[in-house]
Amino acid sequence: MKKIQFIFLFLFLCNSSLFAQKSLQDWNEFETAFVKDFKRLHIADLQIYYVDNLELIQSNRNIAKQEKMFLRYKIALKSIDFEKLTKSQQLDYALVSYEIDLHLERIVLEKKWLSIKPKKISTEGLQQVPMGKEWYAYFLKKWVDAEVTPDELFQFGLSEIERVKKAMNAIEKASGLDSLEYQNYINRPVFFFNDVATIQKSFEIFKEEISPNLVGHFPKVDQLPDVYIEQGKNKAYGQVPAYYAEVRSTFYYNYFDTPFNRRQVAWIFMHEAIPGHHYQIKYEDQLEKSKIKELFSYSGYREGWAAYVEELIHEFGTYTTKYDELGKWEWDIIRSVRVAMDVGLNYYDWSDEKALEFWQQHIQGQDDIAKREIGRMTRWPAQVITYKYGVNQILQWKAQLTATLPRGKEFPWLAFHTKILQNGALPYSVMDAVIFGN
């Protein structure tokens, strides 16, 4: 038996060596072969609901096939001279390496899972699932980036809470009002809309005002298909202020039974429409991608980009006020608190009660949203962190570039945004290493 196993191992290594030598001659051959073999594995895409991901795990036999394929290509990659590749090929090389390592990590978890798999997967959250912490750490890597850890992201959430609070306090201080007067002021009826026509008109006006300011700062922003704006009618999506429907090129704002905060208009339009989701997706649609880049998708990139452009309200929203900026921070504090809460609920074994107490330490008077978000994070672990992590990565790149500019030189918005957008959705750590050279 040992002799037979040795023969199989010898043949495997020989085949791997021959494959590597062939790949060394032509990156295009490697790319074509990898894409073909990857598609043959029929690996399910990442699902937003954790139960779906666990139920889609394949058999031991299929997992073994996956492992063999990824190990073979991992060996082949080592034989390729990275420096001799074009810039585009180097990016694809890094992307393949990123995916192979992440899939091999998944395979280790799945092999362990199949040995202890329960008859029924609990729908009460990862706390109630065998290997729950291990799965959460993996889901974080899939949703956010392969380099992140739960502990680091928890600390990141805490730091973002403080950053957002500082920005909100600065706006309150600039108002010249004391805390009670300020709260009364921002909750006056003038800050709220109570009919669809007024909300619709406000979005259309903001669109007209900001669109000319984006030209020359975002590539092809005036050449891509226009975005449509409509009231959302589906109450199932009512838990968010707005959402974008790619097929219809439309973003929908939600207005049902409660007054619509006018401070949301600016940041919602920028996030969902232009230069956020609609613009980024339409820009990506017109790119000519390699077979490797077409193979993978990264929603964390898309949410990070849309959250990043909200930070530019004062840069390009000519007629915006400090209260338009406040609207962005009012939702951003929710996003920031969610980062720490997501890790707490899914990795630190927080109860729903402890998560609610944490929310109440930082956000007052919105417990209904807190309970909704706790349910969301329990069902969809890791997804809510994509917004904050992505915008933070882009702001770091912006800060690095700003530090290199001569005093008084205008920031090169067009070049910076082109650099981020021109390859489509990618993992942030791959972009950081290959595109920004860190």
Low-confidence stretches: 1-24
**Radius of gyration over C-alpha positions, nearest whole angstrom:** 24 Å
**DSSP helix fraction:** 55-70%
Distance between the termini: 49 Å
**Number of separate domains:** 2
Structural class given helices, strands, pairing? mainly alpha
Number of helices: 20
How would a crystallographer describe the biggest sheet? Answer: 3 strands, mixed
Number of strands: 5
* Major sheet: arrangement of strands: 2-4-3
Share in β-strands: under 5%
Principal-axis shape: globular
Order of helices and strands: HHHHHHHHEHEEEEHHHHHHHHHHH
Average pLDDT: 92
Word description of this protein:
By secondary structure, this protein is mainly α. It contains 20 helices and five strands. The protein has helices at 2-25, 27-40, 50-55, 60-78, 87-116, 132-143, 150-175, 179-186, 196-214, 265-272, 277-285, 291-295, 299-310, 313-316, 322-346, 352-362, 367-379, 385-404, 413-421, 428-435; strands spanning 192-193, 228-232, 242-245, 250-254, 260-261. The strands form two sheets. It has a three-stranded mixed β-sheet, with helices on one face. The chain has a two-stranded antiparallel sheet with strand order 1-5. Strand 3 and strand 4 form a beta hairpin. Helix 5 runs antiparallel to helix 6 (132-143), helix 7 (150-175) packs antiparallel against helix 15 (322-346) and helix 15 runs antiparallel to helix 16. The model is unreliable at 1-24 (pLDDT under 50).
